[in-house]
Amino acid sequence: MRVGVPAVMVSNAAVPGLTHLPASLSPEVITELLREQPGFSGLVLTDPLSAAALSATGYPVPWAGVDALAAGADMLLFKADPSTVATLTNQTVQAIVSAVGSGELSRRRLGNAVLHVLHAKHINMCGYCCTRSR
User: Fold this and answer.
1) Dmax over Cα atoms in the chain, in whole Å?
2) Distance from C-alpha of 24 to C-alpha of 54, rounded to nearest angstrom
3) For position 1, what pLDDT does the model report?
4) Under a CB-based contact definition with an 8 Å cutoff, are residues 30 and 44 in contact?
5) Which of 104, 5, 93, 7 is nearest to 47 (CA)?
6) Burial of 90 (0-12, 13-18, 19+ CB in 10 A)
7) What's the pTM?
């Protein structure tokens, strides 16, 4: 991370002694160990949230997505059949919207996730907005 790693994928693995959650859903792993201690400010991606490691612990993709974002992840990955990808994506979006509405997920955290994604894509929204309004 000291050499400027732009992105990190967090595993769904368990980290005994650190957290009872899979690492991709754990604030202790993402926020404390990744963001705060070494000061990583890049993009954090999840391991696929559809993986057996999460479904075996009772986390459907939409709930896992909310928990991963709240823990500090910026981009959610999951696998689905082509026939179900739209439905699963919509369910995940609705879970995120509901979590923001209920206060379970802060708008600030969601906004930071968006900024990390845009930064990784080299998109400066301020420059875009300022240029477009002229």
Assistant:
1) 55
2) 9
3) 59
4) yes
5) 7
6) exposed
7) 0.88
Beta-bridge partner residues of 125: none
Domains and CATH numbers, the chain: 7-132 (3.20.20.300)
User: Which of these, 133, 105, 129, lies nearest to 118 by C-alpha position?
Assistant: 129
CA 109 to chain centre: 10
Rg of the chain (C-alpha set): 16
**HEC string for the chain:** CCCCCCEEEECCCECCCCCCCEHHHCHHHHHHHHHHCCCCCCEEEECCCCCHHHHCCCCCHHHHHHHHHHHCCCECCCCCCCCCHHHHHHHHHHHHHHHHHHCCCCHHHHHHHHHHHHHHCCCCHHHHHHHHCC
Each residue's pLDDT, cut to its tens digit, for the chain (134 residues) gives: 556 788 999 999 988 888 889 999 999 999 999 999 888 889 999 999 999 888 888 889 999 999 999 999 999 999 999 999 999 999 999 999 999 999 999 999 999 999 999 988 888 776 555 444 43
Helix orientation angle between 85-102 and 107-120, rounded to the nearest 10 degrees:
130
